[in-house]
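Question: Hello, beginner here. Any chance you could explain the protein record under this note? Any guidance would be welcome.
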Amino acid sequence: MNFFDRSSWNDRNNSGLKMLFGIICVTVLFYLLTRGGKSELAQMLCMSTPGLRDLQLWRPLSSLLVNISAWNLFFEMFAIYIFGSIIAPRLGATKILSIYLFSGIFANLLWAAVYWNTPAAICGASGAVNGIIMASAIVAPNLQMYMLFIPFPVKLRTLALVFMVLSLILSGMTPFALLDIGGFLGAYLFMRLFDRKNMEWDMLTQLTGQKNKPNTIRFERPAPRSGNQGNYPDRNEVDRILDKLSRDGINSLTPEEIALLEKVRDQMNRNSR
């Protein structure tokens, strides 16, 4: 029963958070190296349609490292930490990085497809950041958060849809809005194609009016051996804790709830011998 192995939870949590800090540190470092997008290095790294036509294929990835505004950089890195820390315990470092890169590159390619015949250039990690936001909504859709200017908590999935609608409204005004939309779609495609088991909310079924079918983990208690009857914790309580864990992640559990799961694990290990 590795699911009850607290050490594996802690390892995944630590690796995911370390990856988030790594992304933040590298992005800030490149902001300093490129002098806020004003250096020649920034011109080599930024996303540009002429560069892609010249087969400079590194640009969809490298442009994620270039930011032209310290204020924009702060809010992007802050969003990565806030929303990324929600899914870090469940997904781990590899998937966090994969979602970040997949969403950012997908957004850049979508932008390039629209502006292919225009000698345009763009940079920034807004697509990748919005991918992390979308992934957090998919993994923990019912987690409630406070939104600026709204005095009551909003579910993460509602927050993601609001962000997407705002980006659609702004898409005719600025190419950065197109990057935001591409980031949302990129994260959804990644989860749909490569990590369906962690999808607790499907945006497509939400928009089409179908019911979502979350991957809820259920606890099945084996029949106790003679001499051990009556030693199991209450099944309803264990089911409640597992539902909470599946919905909101390991960080939502209290020490008492974690201790109860460890007790269940130890009991099942003894019965399997």
Remarks:
- The first helix runs from residue 6 to 33.
- DSSP finds eleven helices and four strands in the chain.
- Confidence is low (pLDDT under 50) at residues 1-7, 214-230.
